[in-house]
């Protein structure tokens, strides 16, 4: 199963890369956009100047100190439940709680890999190593490499690894290329999407190891050491406290719910939005905005989805600290409106309705073949 989920990513250097209408539903229609003329780069330069003048790219160490302390406190609480609770059934609730914490740790790791937190790049790198490799079992180098490729060409066929997933298709062209078991899954992918996410955490861990074995990124030795510590301490702790069978169930629940939470959080950003052909020449500003969906501002939404609620602003300014994204959104939205650039945001439930509707529509041609 992991092999089917492997993104077809190339190797990118570490660091951060700086819809048509459907009247009946008012949804952005994720058709493939054919090559378009380039726009002059002045728009993005002007926008970035506005953002910089507002101080929105300045580091926010105090904010992240609070965020890290909060999640660390929740992690300690979950570990305390492991030590204190004697009812094994209640530990399954703890596994769900730990899945929430793990995804929040991943969000902070995401910000660290974008070097949003500290002024010194090395401190961001080390925080990413601790959060990703040690606590989650994900390689910082593997994730940064894949994520940078995504940021460079979001929703662009053959160039964005996040839409090059063999068990899914995000355009009819992709769907028609699937054969065998993947073709069957794509036919009904709207139903399979969430079940597939249950193995996403395992998939990320597997490909983290595979990446470090095949490639030689910076900190490779340290990454392998921290992964080794994670994959020893995590099961040993659970097996010693819960016993073998309960520990296995705890791991399965924890990892499955982590994958679902993480996958659905990232899906809300781009899935169901404009898909670009490989040869498309759209400029940076328009590609980042037109292929991306924001979630409407709400205190609960911004907490649950972490840095992913304001994805348009994050894609335009990957180094912007999380707590400045909403302020930037008011500037970006006005800027886009003045230039007739479609800026799209929706509520959480509306975004998922659009995602599953899109997945179902993409698989329709394959289902039609069966009826013929």
Could you walk me through the main structural features you see in this protein, from its secondary elements to its overall organization?
- 64% of the residues lie in helices and 3% in strands.
- With 372 residues, it is mainly α.
- It has one domain (2-371).
- α4 crosses α12.
- The model is unreliable at 1-32 and 34-39 (pLDDT under 50).
Précis, in short:
The chain is built from 18 helices and six strands.
Strand content: under 5%
The H/E string reads HEEEHHHHHHHHHHHEHEHHHEHH
- Output the structural class: mainly alpha
- Number of helical segments? 18
Q: Main β-sheet: number of strands, strand sense, barrel status?
A: 2 strands, antiparallel
- Read across the widest sheet, the strand sequence of neighbours is 1-2
Distance linking N and C termini: 30 Å
- Mean pLDDT across all amino acids: 89
Q: What is the tally of beta strands?
A: 6
The shape, in one word, is: globular
Bin the helical content.
Answer: 55-70%
The total domain count is: 1
Radius of gyration: 21 Å
Uncertain regions spanning at least 5 consecutive residues = 1-32, 34-39
Q: Which tags fit this structure?
A:
372 residues, mainly alpha, two-stranded antiparallel sheet, two-stranded parallel ribbon, 18 helices, disordered N terminus
Per-chain topology:
Elements: H1 2-5, E1 21-22, E2 27-28, E3 32-33, H2 42-53, H3 61-84, H4 88-113, H5 121-136, H6 140-152, H7 172-177, H8 180-187, H9 189-197, H10 200-214, H11 220-242, H12 244-270, E4 275-276, H13 284-290, E5 294-295, H14 299-304, H15 311-316, H16 325-338, E6 345-346, H17 348-362, H18 364-371
Parallel strand pairs: 3-4, 5-6
Antiparallel strand pairs: 1-2
Helix pairs in contact: 3-4, 4-5, 4-12, 5-11, 6-10, 8-18, 9-12, 9-17, 11-12
